[in-house]
Amino acid sequence: MTESYLKQQKLVTHTWSPDGQFVALSIKNTSNADIYKIGQLEKIGTWQKVSTLKDASQQINVLSWSVDNKILIGSDDRSVVVYRNINNQWSKDLVIITNEKAILSGEWAPNGQKCVVGTACHKAFVLFFEEKNNWWHNQQINCFYSSVTACRFHPSGRVVGLGSTDQTFKLVSCVIQENMNFEDQTYNGLFKDIRTFGEILVTINLNGWINSIDFTQSGNKFAVAAHTGLIKQYSFNEDGSLIVDNEDKNATYIKETKPFNKIIYLNDSTLVGVGYDRKPVLLSSEPTLKFTSIIEKCLAAEGEVQKSGSIAAAKQMFSGKGQKTEDDKFGHQTAITCINKVSDSLISTSDVNGIINFWRI
Amino acid sequence: MAAAVQVYSDAIRKTLEATLCLRAFPSEIIEKQSKPEIELNGYSSKTRQLVLSPIYLCRSEKEKCVIEPSINSTRISFSIKALDEVDRLIGEKFAKYLAVRADYFEILRRKPIPGYDISFLILDSHLEKYSVQGIINFIIDYVENIDKDLSDIKLNINTQARITAACFVGGLANQ
């Protein structure tokens, strides 16, 4: 029932709760965000809808679940909404944001105290909560010539990586001066001494629209995926400066066929990319970026192959019946638009046709 | 001859596979709207980063194709080979016949862009409904068969003209 509903209503993106018990789905046709309680992970039919967030009037592009159980929603109707879970009810906070166009990308900071959204009006906004006014206020980052299509916080929470359709990636500081207590005081790694807002630390031109950015958990490397099929990985020095023009440290992977939509680091040495090729691609990121393998079978396909025994398969073959390939029955028929890490060895991907697949690494 | 068309259609296929990586993208000019960026190209300087350079594939001086990609739409235009006036007339009529029925084809543009005989406009919403390979196969099918279709029409015209002329001259001779 849930599966057919998703296929009919279409999916934009999905995100998991911190405990992995719930998933929020952005439904394209209804412009709502549905929250489901997971029954059996890979069996979508066992998922139960527990609530619906209905405040957007157009497609929800941004759906992010913070570590302290807040949900960030950004929509094509240029609205940004932050929901808190109070006594199992989702209530929305007032958000003050001065954007003029659609929200394209967004994410919570690692400690959940602030968030960043990228918009089609060539700006990015960092939102933080003002307790005295009980609203989310914003500070804007205005350094791009085109839409901000990718954003990701560094593990320190003090800098944010932003990518745009003007083909540049920028690393920008985002420490809110009035609220230093938003920052993680126990953090002791790169950028711990950053105290400014809006300072551009790094600018990189990649000759293609930036589709996705991710940092490693340790924060000493990051990768950027461009629409030219390129993924470029950069390393930081110990003082936070970027190592550039060093082919040993900066690795490039070029995909000859189709570009990646999203990339994530599973750990410091493994990167997964998904996109128009409809299957996740595993890359190793140490010492340099190198293709490892394509994950051919999703979890659903593995289960099905185990069930149909060799006799049944042989019967079908000799009877001349056209056996559907696994690509037809399982996997994605259109480009993968979203990827999330479910656990250390499991990722989930979704496409616009409402298909959610799980892949074992 | 078939080999020459094959090379041309293979080049178009590979280019389309690369340029049909589209995504839904809201307009940077009009809020709450989504427009094909390739059609708005030149309307505002703000959106010029969203449109890529056009790719020209020429089989000969008269037979060519231009593929104009952008972030959420791709426009493909073809120029049909016309060796004489009859070929030009047939090509025009054929293209007009298809363009009038553009609604049925969905990906067909009602009016071809200047300098070309037929144009296709493919949006990200088309790729959600139809498979990319299906759309590419449809366009390649058109490219590979258009010459044959037009020469069949020309042959028919010549045959009918010959029969008509024979009847007319026969009638005159019998008088």
> Any idea what the CATH architecture of chain B is?
2-Layer Sandwich
Poorly predicted spans of chain A:
305-310, 320-327
Total of DSSP H or I helical runs spanning 4+ residues of chain A: 4
* Shape verdict of chain B: elongated
Q: Rough shape of chain A?
A: globular
Tell me the CATH topology of chain B. Yope Regulator, Chain: A
pLDDT average of chain B, as an integer? 90
Give the mean pLDDT of chain A: 87
Spatially, the strands of the biggest sheet of chain B line up as: 1-2-3-4
- Cα end-to-end separation of chain B: 48 Å
Radius of gyration of chain B: 20 Å
Q: How would you sum up the major sheet of chain A?
A: 8 strands, mixed
Tally the helices of chain B: 5
- Terminal CA distance of chain A reads 28 Å
Largest interface: A-B, 33 and 21 residues
Structural class, from helix and strand content of chain B? alpha+beta
**Which strand-content bin applies to the residues of chain B?**
5-15%
Rg over CA atoms of chain A: 21 Å
Could you name the ranges of chain B where pLDDT drops below 50 across 5 or more consecutive residues?
Answer: none
Provide the β-strand percentage band of chain A: over 45%
Key attributes of the depicted protein:
heterodimer, A: 361 residues, mainly beta, four-stranded antiparallel β-sheet, 46% strand, B: 175 residues, alpha+beta, Yope Regulator, Chain: A, 50% helix
Describe this protein's structure.
The complex is a heterodimer of chains A (361) and B (175). With 361 residues, chain A is mostly beta strands. Chain A has four helices and 27 strands. Chain A is globular and about 50 Å long. The model of chain B has no long low-confidence stretch (mean pLDDT 90). Chain B has helices spanning 2-19, 85-100, 102-105, 124-129, 132-174, and strands at 55-58, 64-69, 73-79, 118-123. The longest helix of chain B has 43 residues, at 132-174. Chain B has five helices and four strands. In chain B, helix 1 packs antiparallel against helix 5 and helix 2 (85-100) crosses helix 5 (132-174). Chain B is elongated, with a radius of gyration of 20 Å. Chains A and B meet through loops of A and loops of B.
